[in-house]
Amino acid sequence: MDSYEKMENEMQTFKKYLKMTNDLLCDSYKWKKLSEYAEDVDSKEKYKNISNTLYEMFMTEHQAIGEMFKGE
Q1: CB of 72 within 8 A of CB of 45?
Q2: Which long-range CB contacts under 8 A does 52-60 form with residues at least 24 apart?
Q3: With contact defined as beta carbons under 8 Å apart, do 31 and 47 qualify?
Q4: Quick one: which of 68, 72, 71 has its CA closest to 13?
Q5: pLDDT reading at 1 higher than 70
Q6: What average pLDDT does the segment 55-64 reach?
Q7: In whole numbers, what is the pLDDT of the chain averaged over residues?
Q8: Whose CA is closest to 58, among 15, 30, 27, 14?
Q9: What pTM value is reported for the model?
């Protein structure tokens, strides 16, 4: 594989990684909104915990993306 094909392959992999990371944020927001509309306290707390977990996962991956650019 020549260098251009290798770069294209790396770009496709990176784009997939960015989409997966963005999906974490979108899912986190969806669960946050579900917690706001839930009718019972247990569901509100459960959905909020799921949202917080997904958001933490997003932030971990977001930080990793930043580190990729810094070359760390």
Answers
A1: no
A2: 52/28, 54/24, 54/25, 54/27, 54/28, 55/24, 55/25, 55/28, 57/24, 58/21, 58/24, 58/25, 58/28
A3: yes
A4: 68
A5: no
A6: 97
A7: 95
A8: 27
A9: 0.86
